[in-house]
Amino acid sequence: MAQLSDQLFVVSLFCHLVAMIGYAAAYAVNVRAPHRRLLTVGAAGDPATSGDTVGPVTREAAPVQRWAGGVAVVATIAAALAQAGALTTRGLAAERVPWGNMYEFILAVTLAGVLAWLAVLRQRPELQPLGLYVATSTLILLGLAGLRVYTPAGPLVPALNSTWLKIHVSTAALASGVFLLGFVTATAYLIAVRPARPGGLVSTLARRLPAPAALERLTFRLHAFAFPIWTFAVIAGAIWAEASWGRYWGWDPKETWAFISWVSYAAYLHARATASVRRTTTAWLAIAGWATMMFNLFAVNLVIAGLHSYAGA
Amino acid sequence: MSTEDRETVTGSGAAPAGVAEAEPPAAGGPTGGAQPSRVRRTPPPLALLRNSWRQLTSMRTALILLFLLALAAIPGSVLPQRNINIENVNRYAVEHPDLFPILDRIGGFDVYASPWFSAIYVLLFTSLVGCIVPRLRDHVRALRAVPPPAPKRLDRLPRHAVLTDSDGDLDRIAAVLRKRRWRVVVRGDSLSAEKGYLKETGNLLFHLSLIGVLLGIGLGSWYGWHGNRLLVAGPDNAFCNNLQQYAESKLGHRVDSSDLPPFCLELADFEATFLPTGQPSSFLATTVVEQGDQRPFRASFSVNDPLRLDGASVYLLGHGYAPILRYTDRNGESLESDDAFLTIDGNLTSEGVAAFPDVNLDPVTGARNPDLQVAFEGLYFPTAPDAPPFVRSTYPAERSPAVMLFAYRGNLGLDAGIPGSVYRLDQRQVSSGKLKQIGEGKLLRPGEKWTLDDGTSVEFVGTRQYITISVRYDPGERIVLISSVLLLVGLMPSLFGRRRRIWFRVSPAPVDATTTGRSSLVEVGGLPRTEYAGFADEFDRLVTATRPERAGGDGARDDERDDDERDEAPRPGGARPDGARPGGATEEGTD
């Protein structure tokens, strides 16, 4: 079973890679018409809409784009299934919830991110060009998980043997996954609002992205969705810490960084609600928030020792 | 605080609150008539004070303080902290002798108790209070007030519609809106409705809960206490809850050592199970508790499952072995030691000292001979390797226990009054020659005896288990927990709620419109007071639902749906140009 889990992990890596290439191909042939939303068609597309596109999009490009995009979305779904399978079989192999170490946690986070992405894509097929960024970030994280922090399936130490593991870690992973997607949309927004400079890489990337306002609003939605979940995860962690270590808060490095992330995202939400703060500034705050999440995941787990040091266990 | 209202305060610098600013005079109360007072001059010191206060409670300051708070928390995760791990701090002091005093002076090793960290959160909370108190007042007023009258020009609002086919029956429209939980008031020929008060309620609840969390933390640090110690199994090693019994303890500012609740604890049994790999799989400590007048009772606890007593909880932190060594001196007297050996690795290799200062006494006077004191320093292996070198245990459970002892005789240096580790011999005594090693090290298995050069002997009798525990009391916990739950409850409507207003005005129909057979024209205006991309859809649905033909069954059909799915969908007429700031644009309509 543990072996099957590892194989499924490789399958999901491969699928993400295919998805990334597909998204990239679709991205390459897609050019956003000025002040018009190009309706890119996903797996279950509506061919009628593609005829509406005007402006710099050549009519020959549309089928290629549709085809590549379709492959990408199907590959993303396959990757999500494989990843869910990898986690499930790992849970079965170890007879516990499959988020007991860093490797499994990253798998769970990226799975949450990919599922959130598929949910967004279902509602707004026109955001499909973002898939390139989603697939790239996911692939990087999964690659790091597989190469750097791989841990064989095994039972948990008694300290982790608690109902709160199920609640605290699963919600933390879910919130992190949605924050990951929020990071992707915030980055895409910052790229999209860059003033057009002919020949520049960023403006080339920008021209192929959905409208900035839509990206910005989606960024806010994702963060507004993830923030209460993250808050809950921190509270659940505090309740667990009380039962396990005797205090609900002790400034353990992991706790500290969870707090830093919480404050960063709170700052993002406050800035977002303030009319006089520029939207590019708020997007940067979202990215700073994700930076703290990444520091918490990698630096705190692998470099700074603390009570949460279960990375290798 | 998290809305654009706060920004309006600093932005304009005139009206006391953004909420009131948008409010027409009728509902504004005292704030509505603020206009003339602006002419009055304020004495400079007062003006400075007022401006500083405004500056402090402004959103910009709050954002900067939030950012600083995040930044200030970082050093505490990078540098070792006294309240978390004092040994690491001491090690840091040794490793960085130049840097340590500087960092220490600025509070680098007590970040979360340092003046600068405290300053940031105190300022942040002051700013928060300064912001939510006026808003609380405004919100209470808004909750009790009726929606404001319709503005003159409804066509200037973000959403606007003209119904030529309406019957102009405002009471009927009011009923439709009330059914959708709008707060409605009809004034003559116009109707005002508002919805989404819960957003601000949630927002205020969230921020008030933060204050609750802070109060709970404060209460805990004032009235809480904790003590850590090691507890060896057996009735002789039982301890009672008082300060002297703890190896390390901390009392809150308002706690006196006599306030500790009386109870006694004896470790009756400790059971640890391990996987074949040596990874622990379960711990269970069984204790005998004596509390107050109750009869002693047995209670078990474990990791993640503390022992809850009246006024304190006992947490299991660790465990290990205490070898029982029996030393028989020159007079034939036997003494036993069961001092705990500290574990140094995952297989529970343990190191420690068994000291016998009161042996080889003068047979006549009973006086202590400082040169004939005996101590054994050594390692304990729950599972000793089959062959030398005996330096490491190979498994954490006692499969083949053995102790590796090094004997010392001489002056242990215990009388000097210098505090030293009880797990190591005083090396100064060894290097000065006052304490001499006798022979080589010796491996003893249970029951084995080692006779030293002077005829005295030491026997490895067996082991006792020990646990390390933390005994804690924090009266603020409950407040923090309740506040956290309220915080979460407030967060949802604060993030997902939407305040919006809608107005209907009936006017006599123009002459050329009489062809419809109606006698009135209804104008509708909508104003989202917070960012709400789906407002256009809701507005359209409401307008449709209030049409007389569909007021009955159909109105119920497209019931209030806060769905956001269609927000991004292109819609005719209602779309804002890309890049517009919905939050900023919305309030302009009332001017």
Automatic annotation (TrEMBL), chain A:
UniProt membrane topology term: Multi-pass membrane protein
Record domain Cytochrome c assembly protein: where: 99-308
Gene encoding the protein: ccsA
Subcellular location: Membrane
Source organism, top-level taxon: Bacteria
Origin species: Plantactinospora mayteni
Transmembrane residue ranges: 6-29, 67-87, 99-120, 132-151, 171-192, 222-241, 256-271, 283-307
Name listed for the protein in its UniProt record: C-type cytochrome biogenesis protein CcsB
Keyword Transmembrane helix recorded: yes
Sorted UniProt keywords: Cytochrome c-type biogenesis, Membrane, Transmembrane, Transmembrane helix
UniProtKB/TrEMBL annotation, chain B:
Organism: Plantactinospora mayteni
Stretches with biased composition (Basic and acidic residues): 547-559
Protein name: Cytochrome C biogenesis protein ResB
ResB-like domain sequence ranges: 59-540
Membrane topology of the entry: Multi-pass membrane protein
Ranges where the record places region Disordered: 1-41, 543-591
Record's compositionally biased regions (Low complexity): 11-28
Pfam families reported in the protein's UniProt record: ResB (PF05140)
Keyword Ribosomal protein: no
Main location: membrane
Keyword Membrane among UniProt keywords: yes
Cellular compartments annotated: Membrane
Signal sequence bounds: none
InterPro entries: Cyt_c_bgen_Ccs1/CcsB/ResB (IPR023494), ResB-like_domain (IPR007816)
Keyword annotations: Cytochrome c-type biogenesis, Membrane, Transmembrane, Transmembrane helix
Transmembrane segments: 62-79, 116-134, 204-225
